[in-house]
Amino acid sequence: MENIVNTRDINALKKKDTVFEAIANKYGDPPNWSREPGFVNLSRIILEQQISLASANAHYNRLREYVKKFTPRNILRLSDGEMRNCQISRQKAGYLRALSEAVVEKRIILEDLKNQDIESTREQLMNIKGIGAWTSDIYLMFCLQEKDIFPYGDIAVLNAVKELIPETENGKIKLLAEKWKPFRSLAAYYFWYYYLRKRNRSFEAGVGMADS
Q1: What is the domain range of residue 179?
Q2: Which of 143, 174, 189 finishes a domain?
Q3: Global pTM value
């Protein structure tokens, strides 16, 4: 599996649009953000929905410390009270249980997703309560390193595009992103990187993500 951020694709993307050269000239090229695929990191992405990554990481760390071994069966053993004590909201607790049940019942086999096409993977993920377009896109990009994903539900990416490309409205971004194919994931990494560097924030501090 080749990284999203690599020299060949960087050069090709910069030829498609000067905005990426401009970002690189000011801040450099983005790092290759990645995570191991599987239940743990999909759960973390669910916890990151609509809150900062700093808050999500705190909630995840508290939950992980409590259960010791972060597995679907251990998550399903937790009561509502135990979830609350780990700062997991009722809604997020329901989402984690829905994912855990799907894994335990083998309605989804996360290890097999890397061998499937993008649309099949997205469909399987989004069949689980609490996983929407943003969550599936982030999993495809960060965990499976899929190269041609653009997270249209991500607030930070959309705001960065509008800052860098004047008079770009939300409805026009999909059309604009067509010319970044087949490197749209790399394009998103550039916009995230720009957004963070401009605001002197680390990736761990969060980038204003959201799910749809």
Answers
A1: 7-33+148-205
A2: 143
A3: 0.93
